[in-house]
Design a protein that fits this description.
Chain A: InterPro entries: MetI-like, MetI-like_sf. The complex is a heterodimer. Chain A has a domain at 102-308: MetI-like fold. Helices cover 75% and strands 0% of the residues of chain A. Chain A has 12 helices and no strands. Chain A has helices at residues 2-29, 36-44, 49-60, 68-80, 94-129, 134-148, 151-165, 185-222, 225-232, 237-274, 280-289, 293-321. Residues 329-334 of chain A have low confidence and may be disordered. Chain B is an alpha/beta fold. Chain B folds into 2 domains: 6-225, Rossmann fold (3-Layer(aba) Sandwich); 237-328, no CATH class. Chain B is 32% helix and 22% strand. Chain B has helices at 48-54, 86-95, 114-124, 129-142, 147-151, 160-172, 190-207, 218-222, 242-247, 252-260, 299-303, 322-328; strands spanning 6-16, 23-33, 37-42, 64-72, 78-80, 97-100, 178-182, 210-215, 227-232, 235-241, 309-312, 315-317. In chain B, strands 6-7-8-3-9-10-12-11 form an 8-stranded mixed beta sheet, sandwiched between helices. Chain B is globular, with a radius of gyration of 21 Å. The chains are: A mainly alpha, B alpha/beta. Chains A and B meet through helix 9 and helix 10 of A and helix 2 and helix 3 of B.
Chain lengths: 334, 348
Amino acid sequence: MSNYYVRRTARVFATIFAVATLTFGLIRLLPGGPFTQLRAQLLRQGVPASEVDARISNLQNIDPNAPLWRQYLDYMGAVAQGNFGESISLGEPVAQIIAEAVPWTVFVVLVSTILMFAVGIFLGSLQAYWEGSRFDKAFSGLSIGLMSVPFYVVAVISLYVFAYQWGWLPTAGTVGTNVEKELSVPFVLSALEHSLLPIFSYTLGGIGGQALAMRGNSIQVLGNDYVRVARLRGLPDRRIATRYVARNAILPMYTGFLLLLGFRLSGTVILEQIFSYTGLGYYMFAALKANDYPLMMATFLIITVALIVGVYIADLTYSKIDPRISAGGSDEAY
Amino acid sequence: MTTDDPIIEINDAAVTYDGGETFVLDHVSMSIERGEILGIVGESGSGKSMFADSMLDAIPDPGRLSGEIRYHRDDGTTVDVLELSDDELREFRWEEVSMVFQGAMSSFNPTMKIGGHFRETLKAHDADVTSGMEFARELLSDLYLDPERVLTSYPHELSGGMQQRALIALSLVLEPEVLVMDEPTAALDLLMQRSILTLLEDLQEKYDLTMVFITHDLPLVAELADRMAVMYAFQLIEVGDREQLIANSGHPYTRALLNATPDIEAPLEEMRPIEGQSPAPINVPQGCAFAPRCPLATEECRVEDPASTQLDDDHAVACHYAEDARDEIALHFDRSEETVPVSGGDGS
């Protein structure tokens, strides 16, 4: 069994290594090469050629004139030490930019994904209990409707209505410009205010899917003999609802939750663009526009690593929460 | 049919799912003697489970049960089960009459340990958990299970036979008077069926239980029951003392059923399947429901539904020609010699 954990952990590192290599290779393949534009720009500004080379190598931790394998080793070595180089467009170390951006993104993704599951599970189980009722039918329709509306449509509309038309909520940023960046009540309030719309629009569309999944699972569980036997044994309805129905219906959704967390991190590229919310996705898009390769590689790497870790946690913990599954079999999430 | 000390009297119990004239339990009356083992035999879809469920007023939704189910308590008081309030019913079930369903594998919550099922049942009925668990351990030992191992296991960690026995223990943990078993051995292999049967006999003696054992397996229940009843098309067509019912059955269906039962000692040529199919609830024939398949059926049978009549002492049959049936439908093999059940042991 411990052998399984070792193998599974080793695979995480192997996957991250492969992703880093792929990132490096893909960027080499981009037309014009990663630093051609930058070099041309610097040379036009009259910077001596030797200094241009030095600055570029400093930016990327690699010597642009070295053979490709040499550049690759230098890059991987630096990444392994947590050194992503320096951002071309922002002139700051990439690690620092990311350290400032990641908490905002994690906050929005975590809160909206948890909300999405909580509300979806709640509504889905109500639908299942009242299966076939008018509420159930109306909400099933609504769920399908919600699922078909992309989150960015909700984002744009809510931004227009709540921020621009009614002016209830800020239109951009993570906190107010006049708020000190320290852990204080005004800071937290301002942060919440700014995150409200991104979280709302990122949550709403997802609720439908989760509600339908929960509805289906619950109806299936409710039809099981053990629920009937539990009722006959005289158990209180509350206990049957939580310990019997909810638990068995939610279990299959657990893996999906961890995977979604990872996937939704990458969705923030669009979301944070709409709200000018300076998180990971915002910087990724900015890096893309500015040909800021070091920043681009780092953000891409972080998002992939988050997904890999999500699957890893799902694999390792599922056997802990579902007694029927034992770790190490073929019962992996992915 | 009279009984001296009935524990449950069922009068005119009927179950309908459309609120109309379609019955999946068609006005059945039966009285169950305190301390007896009653075997109910019938084909799939003959209303056996409805009969079992009605004793606990536990017909699955949206079915509706009418009639009268009188339960006589130990202390002499009588309640009508269908008149009980929700809370009273909650107490009545499992404390007075408890039930074992077909398919023990699906009767336990897959994400809860067996011990948890016992504890929550005791708690829900305000019973003392410590002494209740003590009793649960004793029950499990009686059923040849290792109590500690079973209580700390998840359902999937036990074999089918072990789950079935754990379920029987769970149904007895509140010391009910009556245990209703709906096809308790259907999912088990033959050896396990026999050993469970032996265990049930021991339990019945030790705890003074009244048992209602419902099955499609006639020879199986014939080994266990004191009295037997045969169901056909949602009605009880023959009720009687076990020996009487098997050796001297009066209903053509019962006799045909006995002739259709495989027996290792009987030559294959003597096996006689019953032609045709048993009716669905929506098209039960007029008159006697068995008439279309009955070799003795006459015009009278097709018009008039025979009432249950006393044939012998403690033997009632719903057939116009019960006496003729005994003469004209020969039983192909002698069933008066009981086959000895394969005895006990841990079949897991």
